[in-house]
Write a structure and sequence with these properties.
binds zinc ion
Length: 242
């Protein structure tokens, strides 16, 4: 059973939009970007299994396979933040493919002190993942010449202390994690949340020229917000909540 709907955006991005009944995040794949035998980059692999027992990771693996991409060929896993519904499966990817793992230093520190307790609170086991490097605000250049992807990394704390958002300037795609969704903002009632920082982060992201807003979760208002005007209106609407 595949619970992910694959949506191709721009030249290089495959979005795997979660369609199950329980909680899990949307994942993004940039296939065939890195040099070597494991060329795919995967953002937010999500849960292994969620609270309803839906096999989230198997579903993502199969959805990718349907598009011709193997989980074993992932060479880098990026976590927008350390919540279980975004990075629980990171350990499995690393185990399967020997992929590197990265997130921001701020988020790694949070994960090692408080964040791990989230997994225990939700009945899961914290993944044993060690970042190979830290995501910093600025350009992250991935891959070789003709398959190169330059990702602009923005530190966007508020939902989590070290959340990052990723922007592909070339295709005007913004991956916002749990900072902003279609018609809603990320929760601010977890440990490490800060409504005032979330507001600043949303302000920062709303300055960007965005054609597709791909957020960490779908809402009743939709999953991917497509079209510059709709994205602008979405930022305008969600600012009411912060
Ligand atoms: Zn989250």
């Amino acid at each position: 059973m595949i619970y992910h709907n694959s949506v191709r955006l721009g030249a290089k991005s495959y979005c795997y939009v979660w369609q199950g009944r329980g909680n899990n995040c949307n994942a993004i794949l940039w296939p065939s970007v890195l040099r070597g035998e494991s060329p795919h980059v995967l953002v937010d692999p999500g849960h292994v299994r969620n609270e309803l027992g839906e096999p989230c990771f198997d579903s993502l693996t199969q959805a990718m396979e349907r598009d011709g991409f193997k989980m074993d060929d992932v060479g880098l896993v990026i976590g927008t933040h350390s919540h279980p519904d975004h990075i629980e499966a990171a350990e499995l990817v690393v185990e399967k493919s020997g992929a590197l793992f990265t997130l921001s230093r701020e988020e790694d520190e949070f994960y090692r002190t408080i964040g791990k307790m989230f997994f225990q609170a939700f009945g899961g086991k914290p993944p044993q993942v060690n970042p190979s490097f830290y995501l910093k605000e600025g350009d992250l250049s991935l891959g070789a010449k003709n398959s190169k992807v330059t990702v602009k990394v923005f530190l966007t704390p508020g939902h989590s202390p070290g959340s990052v958002s990723l922007y592909l300037e070339e295709d005007k795609i913004l991956i916002s994690g749990d900072v902003v969704f279609a018609g809603r903002i990320g929760r601010t009632d977890f440990p490490g949340c800060s409504p005032s920082l979330l507001r600043k982060s949303i302000d920062k992201l709303s300055q960007l020229d965005v054609e597709y807003l791909v957020s960490g979760h779908s809402t009743e208002a939709g999953s991917i917000v497509a079209g510059k005007d709709k994205v602008k209106r979405n930022f305008y609407t969600v600012k009411i909540f912060v």
